[in-house]
């Protein structure tokens, strides 16, 4: 199960890499913008399932100055993924969506099934890491 690393909202416990709560392959019923703007919201429409394909690298705008041109450049940083790529299971459309929107859908139960965490090994000190490798 592929997950987002160094995520803002991550799994608790012994989690040195900050494994996120959204997994690749999770299925969500994404809602239109009108659903979120409506004051009373009502019941969500669960007809169009979307699957998470990948997490995109984050862009740090104007983070480095180019030595050749002297202008500021944008840099792509891995591990800073705040945008996910999703595909519609109904008609095959692909679009980008913010990870915070997927977390909101997950909190409100607009997913096919809850995304469970994989069990992570407990690495409390260096000796236990060596024992895991030797075993």
Characterization of this structure:
With 135 residues, the protein is α+β, with helices and mostly antiparallel strands. It contains three helices and six strands. It has helices at residues 33-37, 99-107, 126-134; strands at 27-29, 49-56, 58-65, 72-77, 83-88, 94-98. The strands form two sheets. The protein has a four-stranded antiparallel sheet, with helices on one face. A two-stranded antiparallel sheet has the order 3-4. The longest helix is centred in the C-terminal third of the chain and has 9 residues, at 99-107.
Mean pLDDT: 76
Largest sheet: 4 strands, antiparallel
Range of strand content? 25-35%
In spatial order, strands of the major sheet run 1-2-5-6
> Number of helix segments?
3
Fraction in helix:
10-25%
The count of β-strands is 6
Low-confidence stretches: none
Give the SSE order as H and E letters. EHEEEEEHH
First-last Cα distance: 23 Å
Radius of gyration: 19 Å
Structural class comes to: alpha+beta
Anisotropy-based shape: globular
SSE blueprint:
Blueprint (H helix, E strand, L loop, with lengths): L26 E3 L3 H5 L11 E8 L1 E8 L6 E6 L5 E6 L5 E5 H9 L18 H9 L1
Antiparallel strand pairs: 1-2, 2-5, 3-4, 5-6
Q: Top keywords for this entry?
A:
single chain; two-stranded antiparallel sheet; 4-stranded antiparallel beta sheet; 27% strand; alpha+beta; 135 residues; 3 helices
């Amino acid at each position: 199960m592929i997950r987002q690393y160094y995520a803002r909202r991550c799994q608790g416990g012994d989690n040195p890499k900050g494994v996120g709560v959204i997994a690749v392959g999770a299925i969500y019923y994404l809602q239109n913008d009108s659903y979120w703007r409506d004051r009373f919201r009502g019941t969500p429409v669960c007809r169009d399932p979307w699957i998470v394909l990948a997490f995109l690298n984050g862009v740090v705008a104007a983070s480095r100055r180019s030595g050749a041109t002297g202008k500021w450049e944008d840099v792509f940083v891995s591990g800073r993924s705040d945008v996910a790529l999703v595909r519609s299971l109904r008609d095959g459309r692909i679009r980008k969506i913010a990870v915070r929107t997927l977390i909101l859908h997950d909190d409100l139960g607009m997913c096919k099934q809850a995304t469970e965490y994989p069990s992570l090994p407990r690495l409390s000190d260096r000796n236990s890491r060596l024992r895991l490798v030797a075993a």
